[in-house]
Every structure is written in structure tokens, then in C-alpha cells.
Amino acid sequence: MAIGIGSVIGQMMVLVSLMAIGFILGKIKFIDRNGNRTLSKLVLNVLVPANIFSAMLGGGFSISGGDAVVFLLITLGCYAFYYILGLVSTKLMAAPRDEAGLHQCMIMFSNCGFMGYPVAQAVFGEGAAIYVTYFVIVFNILLFSLGVAIIGRGGGKFSIKTLISPVMITIAVSVMLFAAKIKPPEFVINTAKTLTQAMTAISMMTIGVSLSDVPLKNLFGEWRVFVTTFVKIAAAPVLVWLILKALAVDSVMLGVATLISAMPVASSVNMLCIGKGEKEKTAAKTTFLTTVLTAVTIPLIVYFLL
After folding, report:
1. Residue 140 in contact with residue 167, Cβ under 8 Å?
2. What is the end-to-end Cα distance of the chain in Å, rounded?
3. Which residues of the chain have pLDDT under 70?
4. 56-75 burial, b if ≥16 CB within 10 A, otherwise e?
5. pLDDT score at 163
6. How many CA atoms lie within 13 A of 13 on its CB side?
7. 3 state SS of 218
8. C-alpha count within 13 angstroms, C-beta hemisphere, residue 248
9. Could you tell me where the beta strands, DSSP code E, fall in 130-189?
10. How many Cβ atoms sit within 10 Å of the Cβ of residue 99?
11. I want to staple 112 with a disulfide (CB 3.0 to 4.6 A). Which of 13, 15, 116, 277 is the partner?
12. pLDDT digits over 37-73, tens only?
């Protein structure tokens, strides 16, 4: 497991470095706010769909019918737990109405795609990718429907048009092709995989650019950011591990679910908040803090729990 931990630490440092690059580019105005909005749209409307498409249809991994059903139930159960944990946490921290939804979303939605694949594969091998894909699919369905509605509390309204987006369309098409066992042409899959390779770098840099607008003295001045950070990267994974361990879940399924629960706030949450004033700053600060701290917390979770 020592090799796996080293790979995990290395992956975390890469993500932090990408955010630092974005921060510098924002500070020197190489990328301004309008440019950052354009990059976020590129990620949400092109790169994320490409990642979903290649994950579902471009992998060489398989899973038995029984295991598929079990892990689907585990995935759905985890998201139901995250929802309740986020709701309870925002109540306890007495978050204002216009901020409560954002804090709940940050607890609920982890960086399961950008970080989930490399970290899970570093610890459990290439076969872990199929399990991470379950979380990625459910993540995208919930984030771009329920998540948008939750973030919009206190301002903005959820629209059914949200469900008609490149992400949701890609999920629907990919599920149908996967169920029908129809494999797209190789060049289509390779194009999607190539686009996916750009996703992590651009996503993390947009977070850095968002942070460049936040005065350094205010970066960690909001106490609720620390509470959300603790719940997200410490309480959530430990609680998920305890519940699944008590249910005697398969070790790899247990490990992947715990790792996904331990991931930092999803950068997609930050991108949904770009252009929304204080919400953007709070999302950027929490995403930054959780990503930096997981360079320590995830290796500890791997060592002590997995």
C-alpha cells in the first residue's frame, strides 16, 4: 500500500499545482473573469460530457450483474447519506438561506471524476475504474438537477431546461448505447478520451483564477468554510466506512466508496457558482482548502482504513 499512498500524494500535489498556476494567471490578468467564465463553460459543456462518454463506452472493464446492482445501491445510498449529512450540517452551523444550499452541495458533491479515477486506480488498480464510473454518472445526474436547485436557494430558480444540457444528454445516450452493447467507432472514443485529458488541468486552473479575486486576508476568514471542510473530507468518509464495514461490503467496493467520500469539493460546484458574487468566492475558498488538505487526509484514510 505504500506505493499506492505515494501515488495518491503525487496526484494531490499535481492538483494543488494546477490551482496555483490558475491563481498566478488570474493575478497577472492573463485570464480575466470573462475568460474564466468561458473556460468553465468549456469544461461543463464539452469536457465533462466527453469524460462521461469515454468512461462508460471506452473502458475495457466488466462487472457481474449481481455486483452491478449491489454497487449501484451503495452509490445511491452514499448520495442519500451525503444529502442528509449536508442538510444537518448546514442547520447546525446556522448558515444563512442564500449560503445554506451551497454548503450542502459542497458536502454532497465530491471531485469523483477528476480525482476519483486516478486515486482509486492508484490504490486498487485499473479495475477500480468501473466502480468510480457509477459515482460519476450519479454525480452528474444529481449535480445538474438537484444540485442546481439547491445552489439556487435564496436567489435564482431551478428550470426544467437544466435537465436538457450536454451533460444530461450525454448520460442518456451513453446509457442507451451501453445497455444495447453498441460500441461507437474507435476514433469517436479516442476523441472523447483526448478531450478528457484536458479536463483536470482546465478545471483546477479555473478554481485558481476564481481565488485570485479573493483578497488573501479573506481567504480563510469565514468559519463556515472550515466546518464544511471538516465534514467533507473527514467526517463523511469515516462515517461511510463505518456504515459499509458494518454491512460487510466487499473490500474494493468499500474502499472506492470511502475514497470517493474523502475527495475534496467538486470543481464543478465552483464552476456553477462563477459569476454569482459571494457564492463564487465561498465555493472557490472551500474547494481550494479541501483540495490542499486532502493531500494529507486521503493518504491517512488509505493507511488506517483501507
Report:
1. yes
2. 9
3. 1-4, 59-62, 126, 153-163, 214-220, 274-278
4. bbbeeeeeeeeeeeebeebb
5. 63
6. 7
7. helix
8. 0
9. none
10. 18
11. 116
12. 898 888 878 988 888 788 778 765 567 778 889 999 9
For 27-45, letters b (16+ CB in 10 Å) and e give eeeebebeebeebbebbbe
What are the counts of helices (DSSP H) followed by strands (DSSP E) for the chain? Answer: 16, 0
Tell me the residue type at 278: E
Which DSSP category does 185 fall into?
P
> Distance (Å, rounded) from C-alpha 270 to C-alpha 1?
32
- The DSSP 8-state label assigned to residue 160 in this structure reads G
Angle value at C-alpha 113, between 214 and 200, nearest 5 degrees: 55
Do the beta carbons of residue 302 and residue 1 sit within 8 Å? yes
For 262, residues 6+ apart whose C-beta sits below 8 A from its C-beta are: 110, 233, 236, 237, 294, 297, 298, 301
* DSSP single-letter state for residue 233: I
Closest CA to 112 of 293, 237, 244, 283: 237
User: CA distances (Å), 232 to each of 21, 108, 260, 262, 273, in order?
Assistant: 25, 8, 11, 7, 18
110 secondary structure, DSSP code: B
Query: Which CATH number describes the domain made up of 2-305?
Result: 1.20.1530.20
Domain positions in the chain: 2-305
Which among 165, 293, 160, 146 has a CA at the least distance from the CA of 230?
Answer: 293
State the Cα–Cα distance between residues 278 and 274, nearest whole angstrom.
Answer: 10
> At which residue does the C-alpha cell 498556476 appear?
21
- DSSP-assigned letter for residue 95: -
